[in-house]
Design brief:
303 residues; alpha/beta; D-Maltodextrin-Binding Protein, domain 2; signal; transport
């Protein structure tokens, strides 16, 4: 009996030990992102929620990353300057408080060659843009981002061909004279505005609607997809289809966060970014004529 009692006690201890090992294995799996240990990727941008940029993020990037990673990666999208204006969220990506962002080329203030794609009248059409930016030239332009700013470039995407909107008709070069024009706070833009004879007022995109509504500025320049998605047509009367500049965006991710990922996760993110960016290019190109007709109808209704 005494031996049986000792044997029974031994079995209880052994089962308890095995149970403990099983529990430890479950925790290890969760830590690898299989259940409850997913890494979150916050993606910040300044576009309105229904802009093609955010549609592509929702329908392509988020879906692909979460499905292909098996739930080890989760994507949270923050549109419309939710995490700050362009400079603020880009700085957030640089310092790691935000994992990922889709800024314009604001970094050209520190890395001048990043401003090359926004030289006036450089590109003929969307195909020309894609051929240049997705080739060796695009790689060369973006290659210093990792070394100088601590962000890894993932893919080029489209803001679009820029044009001027205003609260008056622009029929000639003389009509630019004295026009109070909102421009991004980037030397390339400011120089163009001054050469046209406008009074340039730099401000973040998040402040544009109020500035136009309150007539702090007379006009602004952006692609018509942004003009429509942001509702600026409600406080403007005219658009000049100048296409004076193509404005790209670029998917970037914090370098330290990137290095914390597995090679498989990096590949998933890289491929998802490229697919989403290509899709956004398609949406921008397809929506151009539709956006143009929409603005013509709305301007006619308010004039």
């Amino acid at each position: 009996m005494e031996r049986m009692a000792i044997f029974s006690l031994f079995l209880v201890l052994l089962l308890g030990l095995l149970s403990g090992c099983g529990g430890s294995g479950t925790k290890s799996t969760a830590g690898n992102g299989q259940s409850g240990g997913a890494k979150v990727i916050k993606v910040a941008n300044y576009f309105a929620e229904e802009h093609p940029q955010n549609i592509a993020l929702r329908e392509k990037f988020k879906k692909i990353v979460e499905e292909k990673s098996g739930g080890s990666l989760k994507v949270q999208i923050y549109p419309n300057s939710t995490l700050g204006a362009e400079k603020e969220f880009y700085d957030g990506v640089r310092n790691g408080t935000i994992e990922m962002g889709i800024p314009g080329l604001i970094m050209q203030n520190d890395i001048p060659k990043m401003g090359v794609p926004e030289w006036p009248f450089l590109f003929k059409d969307f195909e020309h843009v894609k051929k240049v930016l997705n080739g060796p030239i695009g790689k060369e332009i973006a290659k210093d981002l990792e070394k100088k700013h601590g962000v890894v470039p993932l893919a080029w995407s489209a803001n679009g061909f820029r044009m001027f909107s205003a609260n008056r008709t622009i029929d000639s070069m003389d009509d630019f004279e004295g026009l109070r024009m909102r421009m991004p706070n980037i030397p390339n833009y400011i120089t163009i505005g001054k050469l046209l004879g406008t009074n340039v007022t730099p401000m973040p995109i998040s402040e544009v609607f109020t500035a136009l509504e309150q007539k702090v500025v007379d006009g602004q320049d952006n692609p018509i997809a942004t003009l429509r998605a942001s509702g600026w047509y409600e406080v403007q009367t005219d658009v000049l289809e100048s296409k004076h500049m193509f404005s790209p965006n670029i998917y970037v991710i914090n370098k330290k966060f990137w290095d914390s990922l597995t090679k498989e996760q990096q590949t998933i993110i890289q491929e998802a970014a490229k697919e989403a960016a290509n899709y956004e290019f398609e949406l921008m190109e397809k929506s151009y004529e539709e956006d143009k007709k929409f603005l013509e109808r709305n301007y006619s209704a308010t004039s």
